[in-house]
Structure formats: structure tokens, C-alpha cells
Amino acid sequence: MAFIKLNDLEVEVEDGTNVVEAARQHGIEVPHYCYHPGLSRPANCRMCLVEPYVFFPPAGAIVPDRQLATGCTTVLRTAPPDRKLDGKYDFIVQTDSPRVKKAREDILEFLLVHHPLDCPVCDQAGECDLQDFSYRHGHDKSRYLEVKNVPPKKDLGPDVLLYSTRCIVCTRCIRFCDEVSGSGELGLIHRGSHDEIDIPRNHGGAPLQLLDNKLAGNVVDICPVGALISKDFLFKSRPWFMKKTNSICAGCSVGCNITLEYKEDGVYRLKPRFHGEINQHWMCDDGRLGYHYVNSDDRLQLPLKRVDGELTPTHWADALALITEKLLGTEAADVAPEDIVVIGSAQGTNEDNYVLQQFAHDVLKTTQVGLFGQLPGEEHKFPQFTIEADKNPNTAGARTILGAANGNVVLEGDALWERVAGAKVVYLVSGGPERPLEAAESAALEKVDFLVVQDVLPSDVTQLADVVLPGTTFAEKDGTFTNSTGWVQRIRKTIDAPGEARVDWEITQQLAKQLGGEMNYHFAGEIALAIAENVPGYGEATHQKVGDEGVKLT
User: Fold this and answer.
1) Domain enclosing residue 338, as ranges
2) Distance of alpha carbon 26 from alpha carbon 323, whole angstroms
3) How far is residue 144's CA from residue 408's CA, in Å, rounded to a whole number?
4) Predicted model pTM
5) Domain boundary among 104, 139, 169
6) For a FRET experiment, which of 70, 335, 449, 539 has its CA 20 to 30 Å from that of 127?
């Protein structure tokens, strides 16, 4: 640990910490643009200048260094005993001295020379570092009277626009494409005050619309001004009108930590949230843009029952009564426990699947339990990030919880569909938006006498159902997912489910009660406590312990 004097504070910091991060850890703002903790440090914006102190032998005093230093590249380390300042400090630095303040004012004035005054129409307004730092650290007016440069607006790909007039050439986006995605599309063209971010025309002879790598949206997140803009979010909302909640991306089994931004009428934006062992600072575009089904006008909002070959809206009491009659009524004598298959969802939470297996084992008395989820996609590996082929957020958790609590063998793949083809009753919880059925899956489900499907959108599987029950998405319920590396992480309810859709475990529990079951959970955290008690490895996975950081299974 390095013992430093930071302004008037005496603090200890880890060796190797730079001044920007050391100051942040102690509530001191050192403004910066080019620096990002997940990227290399070119120190080209000069905004993070600080004033280090040195020992001056002739006078025997500790004095400010004759040059200011960039805080992003000034690394703090334990000094040898004979090099300590004032006999005890490894480093002394001022982040708010008159020299530093004057330098920041001058740098900001320079950065704003060609910047347009379009804050009222800029998507970044309200979360813009240039706007905030200008207010806190800059001049109140500009002395520049000459004609401003007006470089063109550029379309950089499927979801990224570049408003070049707003760019301060911090090069974060260039370094991201070089170091994290490894795609290297972006570079600088022209020189001096005419510098522009662009896709150089010698980049493999490719056209300018090349920024279509699956991590491209991250350049929008890391842009400190309003230069790089998401087409998906363009002009949707001012940030101060949205609420924010920490959650987990449901796009694949990586389990990227995200901030979910929403209003009462739906989800507006997903942004990555730092987790050092899972996704660092990043997320992929598939996950980032994969939330639209949550807001879809096609969402299932009422239970459906099949009448004369067509699915017809009904009410919950009627839908549950139909299922109860099939399992307890006059036809029930023909349905033995081995004729029933219950299929959990790799899209559902651990809590959803725990209640489901309890329903299967304790109420239906069947051990025929399967797992259903999105079809696998492609795996994409980047220098600092991986998009996994498993497009479900909770395959690992669902597989363990559906089987471990009651010793069930979880059926998957061909074994599952062979068993389904011979079943009389199948209760399938899907939740996989727009998941197509393969030929073998469709053929097996068509043979089932009575098919109950719990889902969020009309799909191939709901079209085969006798009863459809409207469930909820990851944005509409509380619970946990277990990612592919064994991290249990929280999702949180942000918006209400549409119409009369209900949380999946609540649907299952209500059905269990109608069939004589004794389940009586009141909230998802209560189910998590039951999981911690009954599922090996999940002893620490209560909601309180999982928190925002997650818990790694032992």
C-alpha cells in the first residue's frame, strides 16, 4: 500500500493505482476524457492534470514539480525509505491547486473551440462529461470568434451514428476497437484541428459502414460527449426522465451485469455495468438490443384456451379450471404420473424453476422433468470478451435446480422429445421470445393429448397448446440467474407485466393449490431461502447475500 497525501487527505491506496482512481476512491473528482479504466492510457486530452510535489535538495523543502502531470498515467507506489516525502509520504499531489484549475479552464476552452451549442437537441445532454466539466471546471464564456469547423455526420453501422461536430477526439472508441473487440475499424483522418474519427478507406478496402461487430454499441457507452449515438435510443428520452435498476442481461449465459433504464410504459435502454470477473465494462449488441420483445404489442396478456381448433382469450379461473379438470376430473383416471412431463425454462429464474420442480414432484408425483430454452447460436470470441453460444441466461441454474432438489433426472435434447412424444399431459414453461420449433420438437408436441404452455409471446409452441398462460420477462420479476461460470446474480422487477400476465412461479403455485398442493411462497426471496436450504452449492445464494455483486457457487 502507498501512503499518500491527496490534497489535505492522508490516505492509503493499492500500489499501481493511478491518481484519477485514487481520487475517485476518496470522493475527489479529477475530470478526464481520454482515460477509461478498461482501456490503455494515451494521456492525450490533458484534462486530468494534477500537481505532484517533489523534494528540492538545495532548499531542503518539498515543492510543487515544475510541470503538471497527467493523473491517468501517474501511478502511485510505495517509495523506498530514503525517497519518502516529509519522511512518511510515498507521494504528495494536489488536484485543485490554482495551477491545476487554470490548466483545466484553458484545456476546456480549447476543446470547446469547434464544439456546437446543441445541448438542447443532443442525446447525451444530462449525462455528458463535457457539459458537466464545463460547468464545474471551465470558463463561463468563449473567446473564439472565428468560423467553426463543421465535419459531416457519419453512419458507422447498424446502430451507431457519429456526430463529428461534437467529437473531442479522445480516441476511446479507436482504442476500444483495437484492444477489446480487436476489429480495428476506427482511426483518425486529417490532422491538427481537422482531426476526425472515421473508418479509414484503406481498412481492407471496405466501405465506410463497417462498424457492425457485435460489441459496437460499447463505443456509444464510453464516448464522454454526444458524438457517438445509438440509433436505437436516438431521441427516445432524456436520461433524467428514466428510472434505473441493476439487473442481468438475459441474452446469453455470460450473465453480463447491466443497468436497466425504464419508464412506466416499458424498457428504454440497457447499458453494461462493471463486474470484474464476468463482463468487465462491456456487453454485446445482441443483449443490448434484445429487450424489444418486452415492449412488444404482441405480448400475451390474457390466458388462452383452444375452442374449435382456435386459441381464444379466457380468464384465469377458467384456464386453471381446465387444467385442474384434466388432472383431477373424469379424465384423470387415464393419466398416470409417468404420463406427465413438466418442462422448465432456461429463460426462467432459479425461483421459477424451483417452484416448478416442487410442483412436479410433490403435486403431480412425476419425475419426468425436462429443460427447454432458446436454440444455441454462435460463439464469438474477442480479445477481451466472449459471447457464448448458449442463448439462455439460466441454463446452469435451471438444470441444477430442476434436478438436484428432488433427485430428478433432467431430460434434454432427443431424450426429452422422445419422452414428450409418449406423454399424455405436458406442462411447458417457455419464456423464450420467438423461439422456433425444430421438426422433431414440433412432431413430439403434436402427439401430446393436453399441452399447457406458459410463455410471453405467441410462438410456434403456443400455437400447439390447449391452454396458454401469460408469463413474465426478466424485466417484470425478481429472482436470480446462474451463469455458465457459476455466478448467481439478481434480476429485479422494473415494470409491471402487461394485461393479466403473471410471474411464472406464482402461476405454478396457484395451479398447485388448485390441485391440492401446499406451497405458500409470498415473494421470490422466500423461494431463494428454500433453494439455499435444499440445493447443494446454493447455501450462500440468498437474495441478501447475492446483492448487486453476485455470489460464486462453491
Assistant:
1) 304-552
2) 59
3) 74
4) 0.94
5) 104
6) 70
